[in-house]
Amino acid sequence: MSYNRRSILGAAFAVPAAVAVANLAAASPAAAAGVEAGDWADLVLEPGITAQTGSTPQVRLVTIAGTTFLQARGIITGSFAADTKVATLPAAMARPTSYIRATAPRNNSQGINACRFEVNTAGSVTVYGANSGNPITWVQFDSVQTIWR
């Protein structure tokens, strides 16, 4: 009987793969992919900040293969002529241990169409990038997904 690398490696991978397939077949699709998603929770908006109808600003934590991410969705409107605190994380959500930053779409003004979305260790959500010559009138959070620490 002759042995070659391909047949030895094939046999070595066949047993663990068969066990993994059996476990995955019994699991839900999200669990099979190693995904744990928390429930969406509404951000607590600051006075003067408005949620677009049908697009309430919300956040949740999602863990994928052991790495936790903050996801956000929704749209806020207002008139921001400076860096502005727009919301606070829900009281039931843990606070990050470091600053969490992402980029979010905003109204296109003078060719600028994105702003910085930031959550500090107190849970304050701030939007950066507005000034009196280039105010922000809306921000969409749907693209926000960033590492949570």
Global shape: globular
Unreliably modeled segments: 17-21
Tell how many strands the DSSP assignment holds. Answer: 13
Helices and strands, in N-to-C order? HHEEEEEEEEEEEEE
Quaternary structure of the protein: single chain
Major pleated sheet: 5 strands, antiparallel
Strand-pairing-aware structural class: alpha+beta
Characterization of the model:
- It is a single chain.
- The protein contains two helices and 13 strands; from the N terminus they run H-H-E-E-E-E-E-E-E-E-E-E-E-E-E.
- The chain has 149 residues and is an alpha+beta fold.
Write the SSE topology:
Layout lengths: L4 H22 L2 H4 L2 E3 L3 E2 L1 E2 L4 E2 L6 E7 L2 E7 L1 E6 L3 E5 L11 E10 L2 E8 L4 E5 L7 E5 L4 E3 L2
Antiparallel strand pairs: 1-5, 2-5, 3-8, 4-7, 5-6, 6-13, 7-12, 8-11, 9-10, 10-11
Keyword list:
149 residues; five-stranded antiparallel sheet; 17% helix; alpha+beta; 2 helices
